[in-house]
Design a protein that fits this description.
Blueprint (H helix, E strand, L loop, with lengths): L10 H41 L7 H8 L4 H13 L3 H14 L3 H18 L2 H14 L4 H13 L3 H13 L5 H13 L6 H12 L3 H14 L14 H5 L3 H4 L5 H9 L12 H11 L5 E8 L6 E2 L16 E8 L9
Antiparallel strand pairs: 1-2, 1-3
Length: about 350
């Protein structure tokens, strides 16, 4: 029997088998790569058709599509339109660029820019679909995942936002603050829970996280629940405390809060080391001058943008941090009501 299988021990036969195996693997790999690229191309084409808006007024789209303009140039043009607020033109150009790009990384980049443009224009649902498409090309895209958390948060789909945050956590991204914030929003907006239940669920988290503490204090004021203001960091809640009832402020011995009571004319003794603006108001009040008031400005600690109203997530860079609060001395305006 061994004589019949002698050719299997022939070195030349082994080499032939090896090359045949390599050829089969190479063919299979080529076929799989071609199939995957075709599938990806069809997916992108279907995606573009889904978002493309046909309009005879947009002649520039036809011109850009017909001429051999590189995808890089189209990207720069779209970015300039988006920066100037012309989002419709920017979206149209990004869709044209998406047809032209061949490289997987370039497709991912264009999709992310398109998603950001939809986000800035206020089309949150479309933006989420674009970022989801980008994640199909590269599931570890942190930028797309971060935008999705913000989008789902603004759409009040908190469960989805938390799921995306779990993915970011697996990628070793620090998301504890975001998780606390989204969890708090989810609890506070749950219509099936009583105000007391919501408060009890968040009070322990509020002791660890100042964003949650401020959110819970606002909720407690509105729901008329007791709240220990010692939990709050007074410097990050100056505006809330200033606009709170005097009885609430009297429960704290913090110098900043005591200075507010003096500035409001409730207490007489001015404590040491207080903000300049509060000290000025306190001295004016002691001298019976009541026409001065206090206003606030809020500065993002990440992008340094300044805004007239308080925010948890920066309207400009979307960073989730308590803003720096600036105190501004103003003149009190008293409205006079006239009968007509």
């Amino acid at each position: 029997m061994d004589a019949l299988f002698i050719e299997y021990r022939d070195p030349i036969f082994g080499i032939v088998v090896f090359f045949v195996a390599v050829f089969i693997i190479a063919c299979a790999n080529y076929w799989w790569g071609t199939f995957k690229n075709d599938k990806e191309k069809n997916s992108i084409e279907q995606f573009i058709k889904k978002f493309e808006v046909v309009s005879d007024a947009n002649e520039y789209k036809k011109l850009l599509d017909e001429f051999s303009i590189s995808s890089e140039s189209l990207g720069l043009l779209a970015h300039s339109f988006a920066k100037s607020g012309e989002y419709e033109k920017a979206i149209g150009i990004y869709l044209i660029a998406l047809k032209k790009v061949k490289n997987r990384d370039e497709k991912q980049y264009v999709l992310c820019e398109l998603g950001k443009t939809y986000f800035k224009a206020g089309f949150l649902r479309r933006s989420s679909e674009v970022f989801t498409e980008a994640l199909k090309l590269y599931p570890r895209n942190e930028e797309a995942l971060k935008y999705l958390t913000v989008i789902y948060e603004q759409l009040k789909e908190y469960e989805k936002s938390l799921e995306v945050l779990d993915v970011l956590e697996e990628l070793n991204v620090a998301v504890e603050i975001e998780k606390n914030y989204v969890t708090s929003l989810k609890v506070l907006e749950d219509e099936n829970k009583s105000d007391k239940t919501k408060y009890n669920e968040l009070i322990e988290l509020a002791k660890k996280d100042q964003i949650v503490a401020r959110m819970l204090f606002e909720f407690a004021k509105e729901a008329k629940l007791e709240f220990d203001i010692e939990i709050l960091n007074a410097n990050t809640s100056l505006d809330l405390l200033w606009n709170s009832d005097e009885e609430i402020l009297k429960k704290s011995n913090l110098p900043v809060i005591q200075s507010m009571l003096v500035a409001k004319g409730v207490e007489k003794e001015i404590p040491e080391k207080i903000p300049f603006e509060l000290e000025v108001l306190a001295n004016l009040r002691k001298n019976n001058y009541t026409k001065a008031g206090l206003n606030f400005e809020y500065t993002c600690s990440s992008c340094k943008g300044t805004f007239p109203i308080h925010f948890y997530r920066c309207p400009s860079c979307h960073a989730l941090k308590l803003p720096y609060i600036s105190l501004i001395l103003t003149k009190n305006d008293y409205e006079e009501y006239y009968s007509f």
